[in-house]
Design goal:
It is built from no helices and eleven strands. By secondary structure, the protein is mainly β. A hairpin with an 8-residue loop joins β5 and β6. The relative contact order is 0.44. The model has no long low-confidence stretch (mean pLDDT 94).
């Protein structure tokens, strides 16, 4: 994978939050996301949008790199792959968390 951008969505987040937006002007095709931390439970959504003028983000499909299962949320530490071909903006929503913190770091590539 040719890396286009590195981006830290959350660093030791311990409350419900929305990350900053990772812009994808070069239209990278894949986001590899590493999730780590001490939280006993959490839920992360990966959201994207195509139109720069649109403010509505839509949930993206997530592939767990360890077993290739797919889901619409992340609920455990690990490495995940998200197809972002044609997606102009990407953000994460931490919709629930308890018992610790979560860090999420992504590499956008083609």
């Amino acid at each position: 994978m040719n890396s286009l951008n590195n981006f830290k969505f959350f660093s030791n987040a311990n409350t419900i939050a929305e990350s900053n937006v990772l812009s994808n002007p070069n239209r990278g095709s894949q986001l590899v996301l590493e999730v780590s931390g001490t939280a006993t439970s959490f839920t992360l959504e990966v959201k994207g949008k195509v139109d720069a003028e649109n403010t509505t983000y839509t949930n993206l499909a997530i592939i767990n790199a360890s077993d290739y299962s797919t889901s619409s949320t992340i609920t455990s530490n690990g490495i995940y792959i998200i197809g972002v071909d044609g997606i102009g903006g990407i953000k994460l929503n931490l919709t629930s968390i308890s018992g610790g913190n979560v860090t999420s770091f992504g590499k956008l590539g083609e």
